[in-house]
Amino acid sequence: MTSTSAALAPAERAVQLLGSDLSEVALRQHLEGLPAVDAVGLEARAARFGTRSIKTTSKAQALDLAIRMIDLTTLQGADTRGKVRSLVAKALVPDASDPSTPRPAAVCVYGDMVGHAVEALGPAWSAGKDDGINVAAVATAFPAGRASIEVKLQDTRDAVAAGADEIDMVIDRGAFLEGNYGKVFDEIVLTKEACRRADGSYAHLKVILETGELFTYDNVRRASWLSILAGGDFIKTSTGKVQPAATLPVTLLMLQVVRDWERLTGERIGVKPAGGISTAKDAIKHLVAVAETCGEAWLDPKLYRFGASSLLNDVLLQRQKLTTGRYSGPDYVTID
Amino acid sequence: MAFLDYAPAPESTSILSLREDYRLWIGGEWVTGGGEPFASVSPSTERQIATFAYADEGDVDAAVRAARAAFRDTWGPMSGRDRGKFLFRIARILQERARELAVAESLDNGKPIRETRDADIPLVAQWFFHCAGWADKLDHLGLGAAPQPHGVAAQVIPWNFPLLMLAWKVAPALAAGNTVVLKPAETTPLTAMLFAEVCEQAGLPAGVVNLVTGDGATGAALVRHPDVDKVAFTGSTAVGREIAKALAGTSKKLTLELGGKGANIVFDDAPLDQAIEGIVDGIFFNQGQVCCAGSRLLVQENVHDAVMDRLKERMATLRVGDPLDKNTDVGAINSSEQLERITRLVDRGVAEGGEAWSPACELPQEGYWFAPTVITGVEASSTIAREEIFGPVLSVLTFRTPDEAIAKANNTPYGLSAGIWSDKGSRVLAIADKLRAGVVWTNTFNKFDPASPFGGYKESGYGREGGVQGMQAYLKAGER
To answer: Catalytic site residue A302?
Structure first.
C-alpha cells in the first residue's frame, strides 16, 4: 500500500468539504469515517422493493419513465458504423406501432463511434440542449482502465471533441484496492477537466465504479463518495463487462450515498446502474428503490439512467400489453 | 398522480370461502357453544366477518374430555414416526393454503397482507415442519431415553399473531405426544377455525386438537380445568400473573410468554441506513402490536439527530391503509379497545414532556387506525418508557456510554427482547452478554426461527418456545 501526503488536485467539492490543503491522508480519513454498511440488512431492504406491486396507471407511468431513462448501449469490439446507425434508429423510433412511445435519454457507444452517432441522430441530437437524445461515450481506456493517464485523458478529449454530451469513465480499481484513493481521485479530477469543451462548458461525467471488482459494500460506499468529491455528475455501477454488474443492493447503496450528499450539500448527483437489468420488472424495482430512497425528484433522466440494451424491448412489450390488453411477442418489437 | 401514490393493488378475497357461523371444534365435531355467539369484525372496516360460538364451562369440560380420550386412545399410544407424518401433512396443507390463510389473517387481524404472506404464514408452516421432525427424535432432546408427554395441554393465545401463535403452541405439543385444547383470542378466531379444516383435511384423529372460542372467562375456565396437565399462555403480564396464581400448588406445568418493552440500542458506529430499517421493523412491524417490539429506542447522543432525521424521512415512506393492499406497510389496529389504549398512553407521553411526531398520512374513515409515531425527549422515568404501549409508537431515549445503554436497557420490569446496532463485533458481544432479555438481535430485529428458543426474563414470563427448549416444555423425563 502506498500512502503519501502529497497534495491532491483541487476539486471544488472536496475543497469545500475537506479544506484547501487536500491530502491523501485527509481523504482516507474522510472515506473511512463514513458509516458502515451491513450487508444482510442492505440486501433485505433491496429485496423489499421487489415486493411492491406496481399496477395499472403506476405501471404505465413507470414504463414510460424507464424508457426515458435508458442509455441505449452498444459496446462491442465488433461495432461498426452500420451497427451504430441501427442503434440510433431504434432510439429515434423505439416502437413504430405507437408514436406516443418516448425516446431513450442517450445512445452510449465507444469514443470512436461518437461522430457516427451524432451524424445518425441528425436534428434529434441534443447537442447539449435539454431536449433531444444525448450521445454518451465510454472513455479512459474502458473497460479495464489499465492505461497511462495521458492515454485516458486523450481518449476523453477525442470523444468530447467528436460531440459526446456525456463521458462514462472508469476508475482505477487497482489503485482503489491498493488504498491509493488519491490516485483515483486525481484521475477523476483530470478527466473532468478533459470534459471541458472549447466554449467552457463541460460534457457530463459519469464515473463507473465497476462494483463487481470492488467486492464489498463498504468499498462501494467509499468509491461512490470519492467519485462525487472529485466532481462526478453521475455515479455508475458497472461497465457491463464484469459480473456481478448492477445488482439492486449495490444500486440502493449508491442511491443512499447521493441522498446523503444532497442532505449535506443540497446538490443532486445522478445514479446509473448498468449491466444485468434486462426486464421491465427489474426496471420497475429500481424505480421503486429510487423513489423510496431519494424521493420523486430523482425520477428524472437527469438523475437516474439505465445502462442497457435488451431492457428497451422488454419494456416496449409490457407497454404494448398495457395499451392493447394482450401480450404480443419478440417479433412485434424491432431489434436494433 | 405521483409515482409514490402507487395505484391500488388489493389482494382478492375471492379465495376465501368462509362460513357465516363458526362453531366449536371438539372431538373432531363442530358443536354449538353454550354461551351467546359473538362476532369478529375486520379492524380496517369494522364490518362483521362471521359469528363464533361462545364456549362456556361445560364446553371447555367437553373439550378437555375429548382431548383426554384422544391422548389415552389414539395420540398417546401412537409412535413418534406416525405423529410426525400427521404433522408433516398439516405443514404441507398449510403451505398449499398459504394465500387463503394470509388473506383471512389480514382480514381478521388488520395486519398488512405483505406481512401475513411473507412472514406469518411461512413461519406457521416452518414451525410445523420443524416440530414434525422432532416427533420421532424425542430421545435426543436431552431429557434421557423415552421422555413422556404431559397429557392434555391447555393453550391460550393472543390476537397479534393469531395463526403463528397457534403454531408455536400446537406444533410442539403434538410432536411431543400431547393433545391440546386451544382458545384463540376473542377478536381473531378466524384462522384457528381454518386450522380446524386443515386438521380435518389431514385426517388428524378426533380430539387431538380441540378449539374453543370465547373470551377471558373461557380462557380462565380452560386453564383452571382440573384435568389439564400443562398450560401455555401468551398474552398480557396481568393475565399471566392471574394464571400463575391459579395454578400455584397444582401439578400443572406452566409456560408464560408475556409483555415486553424491548430496547433497541443504536451506537454511533452503527450501519446507519440498516439501523433505520431495523428501528422501523422493530416498532412498525404488525403496527407495533408485538410483545418483543423494539419500542424503546436508545440512541447514542452524538448520532441522535442524524438518526432522527433519517428515521423521519423513512417513516414518511410508510404506507398506512387497506391491509389487503399489497403495498401497505402499516395496517389497522386490532380493536377499538387497543386503539383507545394506544391513544391514552401517547397523550400521557406528550403530557409528560415528550414530543410526538408522525408523518403526514391520511387515515381511512372507518376502522381503527393510528399513524406511525415517534416520541422524542422521553426520559427513563416517563410512563411511555415503562409501560408497554403495544402500538406503532416509538419512545426515543439517549445515552452517552455503553454502560449507560446497558443500565437503561435493563431498567424495566420486562425482559423479552433487545437489539444492538454497531459495526464493532467485540462491542456487540460484550453488550449482548449484559442485557437481561430473552432474545438479543444484533444488527437486525424481529427475526424468528423455529430452531431458536424465544421467551422472556422477569415479567416477560418464563419458559421458552422454539428450539430444543420449546420441545422440552411439552415433555417430562422418561421413567426408568
So the answer is: no
Contact by Cβ (8 Å): A41, A244: no
The closest of B461, B463, B462 to B473, measured between CA atoms, is: B463
Q: Is the pLDDT of residue B480 over 60?
A: no
Q: How far apart are CA A324 and CA A306, in angstroms?
A: 26
B271 close to B307: Cβ distance less than 8 angstroms = no
Q: Based on the domain organization, do B228 and B357 belong to the same domain?
A: no
- DSSP tag of B116: I
Q: Which of A95, A155, A165, A168 is catalytic?
A: A168
- For residue A61, the chain B residues in CB contact (below 8 A) are 1, 3
H-only helix segments in B53-144? 57-70, 80-96, 98-109, 113-115, 121-134
Q: Which CATH fold would you assign to the domain A39-332?
A: TIM Barrel (3.20.20)
How far apart are alpha carbons A47 and B433 in whole angstroms? 32
Residue B90: predicted pLDDT: 98
- Enumerate the domain spans of chain A: 39-332
Q: Are residues B337 and B214 in the same domain?
A: no
The torsion angle over the Cα atoms of residues A63, A65, A69 and A73, rounded to 10 degrees, is 20
B75 and B162 both lie in a single domain: yes
Question: DSSP characters for A179-202?
Answer: T-HHHHHHHHHHHHHHTB-TTS-B
B334 and B215 part of one domain: no
Contact, B330 vs B284, CB < 8 A? yes
**No. of H helices and E strands in chain A?**
13, 8
In DSSP terms, B399 is beta-bridged to B300
Residue B303 resides in a domain = yes
Are A37 and B2 a contacting pair at CB < 8 A? no
Binned at pLDDT 50, 70 and 90, residue A6 comes out as low
Q: Over chain A, what is the mean pLDDT?
A: 95
Catalytic (active site) residue A38: no
Find the closest chain B residue to A298 by CA distance.
B3
pLDDT per residue as tens digits for the range A214-271: 999 999 999 999 999 999 999 999 999 999 999 999 999 999 999 999 999 999 999 9
Contact B274 A42 (CB under 8 A): yes
Co-location of B45 and B90 in the same domain? yes
Q: What is the CATH number of the domain that holds B29?
A: 3.40.605.10
B392-424: per-residue pLDDT in tens? 999 999 999 999 999 999 999 999 999 999 999
Residue B463 has pLDDT above 50, yes or no: yes
* CB–CB contact B7 A263 (8 Å): no
**pLDDT mean across residues, chain B:** 97
Q: In the prediction, which pLDDT does A336 show? A: 82
The residues near A198 (Cβ < 8 Å, ≥ 6 apart) are none
d(CA A91, CA A93): 6
ipTM of predicted complex: 0.94
Substitution target from B116, B118, B273, B330 for chain A, most A beta carbons within 10 A: B273
Task: Inspect the interface and report whether the beta carbons of A65 and B3 lie closer than 8 Å.
Answer: yes
Residues B275 and B226 occupy one common structural domain: no
Residue-level pLDDT at A129: 83
Residues B111 and B149 in one domain: yes
pLDDT above 90 (res A55): yes
Residues B225 and B366 in one domain: no
